[in-house]
């Protein structure tokens, strides 16, 4: 059957498939997506591995997707409940394409599909999603060959063993580790990965799998969703707190004082550890990650490589350059040893190893990797972002030391301060990131730029 182009393109996005269950996504739709995906990969694959998160709609939708795949003659391997990086592991282990049913940190009413080719290679807009979208719109051709078959395989144990084989956690000092799963998939994977480590005592928070997210949104990027873990770390006397998003592919860190550790500092720490294995290796960081990251990479003998924001860009550069590691401000961490894909749990193991191999508390350890103060990402609703960006640049005039347009506009003020303004691809938003030497300088620069944005927006109304 054919479908309206606008409806399909609203759901099949640049990086994944995502929409409201029942309104934008249903069993018939995902079955057609499964069939189109099977046609996309059929020349190089004979099976597809499928996993799903804890959302109420995920088992039914993943079953419908599997039916679409099998109707095109490919076999299906069902791994059941999984984190996204566990699905990537299965894709690498079995050397076959994969599909993960999740809407990550989105509310319960949503669901979606993250797709990859064999070896966890991403499928995005330019690498297959447009083709899938076009086929769903036109109507996926039927296949007249034999129907595929389905088998079940539990890979959680293999996934845990593999991650622990990449990080030596055999001789750590005793650590109490608080983990906030946010009722998401870390409640399933954290016991399997961290539980077998003899020196680790897990203190679980919100491990019950519940796709309605009854305690808080499973999005630790929002500081409001870290509050429970910060309090829990202090209450339990934990050495470290770990918070995961809904599909458990991102990991955020809280120190023993209940203070959030910036993902930039985690990026720098993991990069330093990886560079001890391969001096001179390339480390990728996105352009709104702290400038402390490239500084530390150079100091540790590595080669820093700056990227646009977005996992498709970093994964592409990982494959192109053979980079050993990559990190983003959003707490996505990419590893060459993990097929170039991202794994929050693997990053967590690196932080635990770094903490447990020495005697200092986490706050002191991470101070080695914190050099600047940052605003975090701030969003402004605007009607004409390009004009407002031009107005901001004009106002700074001669204060601008250097400028580039790799992703939005990044302005170096030459005094240890910089800011980036990027337009959202999907919303009328202008995103601001600021970094300077002190919290006071951050606040002053944010206020100045915010006032310029507000003034520009007022003039356009």
Automatic annotation (TrEMBL):
Residues 377-449 form the Alpha-D-phosphohexomutase C-terminal domain. It is an enzyme of class 5 (isomerase). It comes from the Bacteria. Coiled coil: none annotated. Gene3D superfamilies: Alpha-D-Glucose-1,6-Bisphosphate, subunit A, domain 3, Alpha-D-phosphohexomutase, C-terminal domain. One of its GO terms (biological process) is carbohydrate metabolic process. Its EC number is 5.4.2.2. This is Phosphomannomutase/phosphoglucomutase.
